[in-house]
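> forwarded from #structure-qc
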């Protein structure tokens, strides 16, 4: 009996912690919520307060017909700006690559950044805001994520 109590207690703690972490984003596909929360967190770590719900933004995961395009940010004059992530890409990509693409589109739609194609002498893109059409290659991974996110949020 005592063991059962301990087990129930730890389940309660775990579910409580999860509830606290869940942030809901308006007009946003729920599969994107964790990534949007991470975007706000990473901005805040760098002293930038971003409340994505205060941005006029509609975000969904759906089929993008254009070949090789995995995400888009469209600016609309009279309607909320719109982020679309390609469904097929989403089904197949790793979490880290999903994050890179979501952050890239938020870089356009929320940080109002354009593309940056600069690269180092290894041919590695200096920014996740590269267009994907340039010569440089991105190797977004756990080791360089911090540097890329510094560039994303703190670049002039
Ligand atoms: Zn772009």
């Amino acid at each position: 009996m005592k063991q059962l109590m301990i087990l129930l207690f730890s389940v309660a703690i775990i579910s409580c912690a999860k509830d606290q972490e869940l942030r809901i984003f308006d007009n946003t596909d729920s599969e994107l919520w964790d990534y949007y929360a991470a975007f706000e967190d990473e901005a805040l770590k760098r002293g930038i307060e971003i409340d994505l719900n205060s941005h006029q933004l509609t975000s969904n995961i759906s089929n993008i017909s254009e070949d090789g395009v995995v995400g888009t940010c469209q600016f609309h004059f009279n309607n909320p700006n719109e982020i679309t992530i390609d469904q097929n890409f989403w089904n197949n990509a790793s979490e880290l690559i999903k994050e890179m693409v979501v952050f890239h589109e938020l870089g356009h739609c929320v940080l109002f950044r354009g593309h940056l194609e600069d690269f180092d002498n290894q041919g590695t893109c200096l920014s996740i805001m590269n267009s994907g059409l340039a010569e440089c290659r991105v190797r977004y991974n756990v080791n360089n994520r911090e540097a890329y996110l510094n560039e994303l949020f703190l670049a002039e």
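QC bot note: The chain has one domain: 23-154. DSSP finds five helices and three strands in the chain.
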